[in-house]
Amino acid sequence: MRARRRNPKIEALRQRRALHSHPERVRDPQFREHSFYDPNDLVQVKYEMLRRVQADKKPVTQTCDAFGVSRPAFYKSQQALDLEGLPGLVPKKRGPRGAHKLTQEVMDLVREALAADPSLRAEALARLVRKRLKVTVHPRSIQRALARRPKERRARARGSR
Known about the structure:
161 residues, mainly alpha, 9 helices, 57% helix
C-alpha cells in the first residue's frame, strides 16, 4: 500500500498558520472557476474578500456570505489589513503572549535575590517568589525570563571591567 503524498503548498500553508480550516465554506465564483484562487490559502481568501468590498464595491453581508465568514471576522480582517498590511491577515499564534505571571514585581524580587546571591538557581528563586509574593512560577519560566535579558547582562559585564 502506497503512502499518500502530501501537497507541498498545503504543508507550507499549515506551517505558516495560513491554511484555511474550512475551505469548503468559500463559495465565491472566482475561487471555484479559476485555479489562481485557492480556498485553502486563508490570507488570499481574506485579501480577496476585503478587496471585493473595497475595490468592487460589493456589500459586506453578501461578500461575507460568499467567503464563508462572519461580519465580525470581516471587520477584524479589515482592521488588521489597515494596521499591518498583508502580514496582518496571517492568523496570530494562539495562547498567552508572554510570561503573564512574571510581573515587574516578581522580576524585581528575582533580580534583587540574584544581586545578593548570584549562585541562586531557578528552583530556589521560584520558592522565594512563592513564599514572599504568593505567586507560583515554574523555575523554567524564570530561567527563560532571565535569558531574555542578554543586553542588560552584557552592559553590566562591560561596566564591571
